UniProtKB/TrEMBL annotation, chain A:
This is Uncharacterized protein. It comes from the Eukaryota. It comes from Manihot esculenta (Cassava).
UniProtKB/TrEMBL annotation, chain B:
GO terms for biological process: nuclear-transcribed mRNA catabolic process; positive regulation of nuclear-transcribed mRNA poly(A) tail shortening; positive regulation of translational initiation; transcription initiation at RNA polymerase II promoter. This is DNA-directed RNA polymerase subunit. Gene3D superfamilies: Nucleic acid-binding proteins (2.40.50.140), RNA polymerase Rpb7-like, N-terminal domain (3.30.1490.120). It comes from the Eukaryota. Residues 79-156 form the S1 motif domain. It is found in: Nucleus. DNA-dependent RNA polymerase which catalyzes the transcription of DNA into RNA using the four ribonucleoside triphosphates as substrates. Residues 8-64 form the RNA polymerase Rpb7-like N-terminal domain. Keywords: DNA-directed RNA polymerase, Nucleus, Transcription. CDD domains: RNAP_II_Rpb7_N, S1_RNAPII_Rpb7. Its main location: nucleus. The lineage of its organism: Eukaryota, Viridiplantae, Streptophyta, Embryophyta, Tracheophyta.
Length: 491, 176
């Protein structure tokens, strides 16, 4: 369930279709400062770096007026790219969200949580709907192609007519009602205006005389357009194909997402030992949110956290999709990276790309070197590319071993579930049903194990170095994701 | 396309027709009511070919009318998308031309007329090739292909094309 290919899809689609969308009202002049074309792309890009986000927060991050942002988001909602959720919020509700945000940022923003003063009114949240985006983009391409082809072949198309006065549309099946005894044109039923055949609009645009010559020219123009479309939208279509068989990232509804995120936050922060919800700061309201996780979801989810913990490292992404049990395949595939090199305009810092996608190796390795030095204070290990490469391989191997082991353990844990259920149900003071309590305690138990596993696993390879790699990820996340994120949005 | 099918209809008959000729009266009324009508479901009823069965009449309260359920065989004509028809041109204008195939009206828009035919206005508006060898005008017979139908409860309207192999004018009474 890797998000990255889907994010790339969103970014490509944004640039292909929403580049010059302006969300200004019709009454405002579209000139100078008020021209907000391009904002749609910025907003979509920002959303690829988030999951559920409160719209006010997003506006603040993007330095946009919230009204303007809302207008853009409403547009995307109509375009079926995002889902939104509105709710009247109490202070508690807001805290649940803050906790969830904190959790997705691995608890790094814990401190912020307290500051947030929330008034009691409606807040809106939004989130990309990847499954729908996939369908919407495909449908759009299909319609584009069909329209051009139909018009080009001029075959089996029901001619459409439009009234230039009132904009009313008709097609050839209405012909009987549209003929007039006075002249040889069709007339609007509404305003008696003379109807124009729709495909003639293209000819009219180029000042054609509407007869034979223009028809031929239109044909050529259409053919040209179709070809251009195939070429220019090729990256988008390629990405659609690439994404086709991947599991679509689902964040679920806002509530479900919050619940999951706060749980995960606990796991990452290692406070799973405390069973008392009131003790952990992220767990606010957690005890009141019904948990309905089953074993499978949980495995995936824990991995999701690992994924976000090391966004700039491709190897984790591999492991992530490899959970289905065919690690070997996926590894070799992404190892040689079937991904295309991104054009420079697509590459922004903080984007989470493989080196091959960036079309460079240098920068990454330099970064590795620096942070390695920073973290271990050992200059001697400031390494060249080869070193890093082998180091990474080592790390991947160790990670797979750990993953496999963990899966086995999870299975065992599942078997032991009933036992745990009995032993732990007393520890939770909430008045939730027995079954939910069982789920909860099981999950916490498992995550406890995971934590240990995660830290120990790389040590199996070669203790000193793999430790550095582990930290590298944290570093990359911290600098690459957080700061650059903001940079990019301000610019 | 033509079909020979069995349909059923409840006929109401005034008491004055009761008597020796009840059956004949019923059938002639059925023909008058049904032939030439169009239902979206079955198409145009061209002709009744036989009566299958006349059920028991039911006297309506208050009026004295009697309702007979009648099963009858008939020929129906229903156009389909993709079907090829021969039709007579009824009107030509700048937007295309209208034609009739029996009860069905068909419109052929100008972009479904071959590119080498141009519209000529005048007393007899027509579409003509540049060398003048082929001319489409009122009363011409054309062969066309149906590319779309609009089926209402009581009406069927078609649009067609003559922009394909073996389609177009097949006989022009004006030149014959
Ligand atoms: Zn009008």
């Amino acid at each position: 369930m890797s998000v990255e290919p889907f994010n790339r899809l969103v970014k490509l689609a944004a640039r292909a279709f929403y580049d010059d969308i302006t969300t200004k009202g019709d009454n405002q002049p579209k000139t100078g400062r008020s021209d907000n074309r391009g904002i749609a792309v910025v907003v979509l890009d920002a959303l690829t770096r988030r999951q559920w986000v409160r719209e006010e927060d997003l506006a603040k991050d993007l330095k946009l007026h919230s009204k303007q942002l809302r207008r853009t988001l409403r547009f995307f909602e109509e375009e079926k790219l995002i889902t939104r959720d509105h709710r009247k919020e109490t202070a508690k509700g807001a805290k649940i969200y803050s906790a969830a945000v904190a959790a997705t940022a691995e608890g790094q923003r814990n401190a912020k949580e307290g500051e947030e003063k929330i008034k009691l009114h409606t807040h809106s949240y939004c989130c990309l709907d990847y499954a729908q985006i996939y369908d919407v983009v495909r449908y759009r391409l299909h319609r584009l192609r069909k329209k051009l082809k139909d018009e080009l072949e001029n075959k089996n198309t029901v001619q459409e007519y439009i009234c230039p006065n009132c904009g009313r549309r008709y097609n050839a099946l209405d012909a009987l009602r549209l003929v007039s005894p006075d002249d040889e044109y069709f007339h609007c039923e509404n305003c008696n205006g003379e109807l124009v055949a729709e495909s003639d609009k293209l000819a009219a645009q180029e000042g054609g005389d509407g007869d034979d010559n223009a028809r031929r020219r239109r044909r050529e123009k259409l053919k040209d357009m179709l070809q251009k479309m195939e070429v220019q939208l090729k990256p988008l279509m390629d990405q659609l194909n690439r994404v086709k068989d991947l599991a679509v990232p689902e964040f679920g509804s806002l509530q479900a997402w919050e619940a999951r995120a706060s749980v995960a936050g606990r796991a990452v922060n290692g406070d799973s030992s405390s069973n008392d919800p009131s003790k952990s700061s992220q767990g606010l309201g957690y005890g009141r949110t019904p948990m309905t996780f089953i074993g499978e979801t949980k495995v995936k989810f824990v991995l999701l956290i690992y994924d976000s913990a090391s966004t700039s490292d491709c190897t984790v992404e591999v492991a992530f999709s490899g959970i289905e049990g065919k690690e070997e395949d996926v590894k070799s595939q992404t190892g040689s990276s079937g991904l295309k090199v991104l054009p420079p305009w697509m590459i922004k810092q903080g984007m989470n790309l493989t080196k091959e996608q960036r079309g460079e190796v240098k920068q990454e390795s330099k970064m590795d070197g620096i942070s390695a030095a920073e973290f271990s204070h050992e200059k001697k290990s400031t390494s060249d590319d080869v070193d890093n490469k082998s180091l990474q391989d080592e790390y991947v191997k160790a990670y797979y071993a750990a993953l496999l082991k963990k899966q086995q353990e999870l299975e065992e844990a599942a078997k032991n579930q009933e036992l745990l259920q009995v032993s732990n149900s007393n520890a939770v003071p909430e008045s939730v049903s027995n079954r939910q309590v069982g789920m909860k305690s099981k999950r916490e138990e498992d995550e406890g194990e995971d934590d240990v596993e995660w830290e120990e696993a790389p040590t199996g390879g070669n203790s000193g170095e793999s430790y550095k790699v582990n930290d590298l990820n944290v570093e990359a996340e911290a600098s690459g994701e957080e700061e650059d994120d903001i940079d990019w949005e301000e610019g | 396309m033509f079909f020979h099918i069995v349909l059923e209809r409840n006929m109401q008959l005034h008491p004055r027709y009761f008597g020796r000729n009840l059956r004949e009266n019923l059938v002639s009324k059925l023909m008058k009511d049904v032939e030439g009508t169009c239902s979206g479901r079955h198409g145009f009823v061209v002709a009744i070919t036989g009566i299958e069965n006349i059920g028991k009449g039911l006297i309506r309260d208050g009026t004295g009318f009697v309702t007979f359920p009648v099963k009858y065989q008939c020929v129906v004509f229903r156009p389909f998308k993709g079907e090829i028809l021969e039709a007579v041109v009824t009107m030509v204008n700048k937007m295309g031309f209208f034609a009739e195939a029996g009860p069905v009206q068909i419109f052929v828009s100008n972009h479904l007329i071959p590119d080498d035919m141009e519209f000529q206005s005048g007393d007899m508006p027509n579409y003509t090739t540049s060398d003048g060898s082929v001319k489409i005008q009122k009363d011409c017979e054309v062969r066309l292909k149906i590319i779309g139908t609009r089926v209402d409860a009581t009406e069927i309207f078609c649009i067609g094309t003559i922009k394909d192999d073996f389609l177009g004018v097949i006989n022009d009474p004006a030149t014959a």
